[in-house]
Amino acid sequence: MNMKFRKMLSLLCVMVLLFTTTVACSSNNNSTSNGANGAKAEQQGAANNTNNGTGTDAAAEEEQLTPESGAKLIVWDGNDGTPFLKEIVKEFSEKYNIPVEVQEQGAPEQMQKMKTDGPAGLAADVLVLPHDNLSEAIAGGFVLPNDFFEEETRAEFQETAVNAVTKDGILYGYPRNMETYALFYNKELVTENDLSSWDSIISFSKKYNDPAKKKYGFMMPLNIFYFAYPFISGFNGYIFGNDNTNPEDIGLNNEGSVEGMKYFQSMREILPMEAADATIDVKTGLFQEGKLAINLDGVWNIGNFSNLSFEVGMVPLPEFPNGQQPDTFAGVKAYYVSAYSKYPNAAKLFARYVTSQEALLKNFEMTGFIPARKGMENEPAIKNNAMVSGAIKQFEHSIAMPSIFEMQQVWAPMANALELIWKGEDVKKTLDSAVESMKQGIETLKK
Question: Where does the record place the region Disordered (predicted)?
Answer without folding.
Answer: 28-65
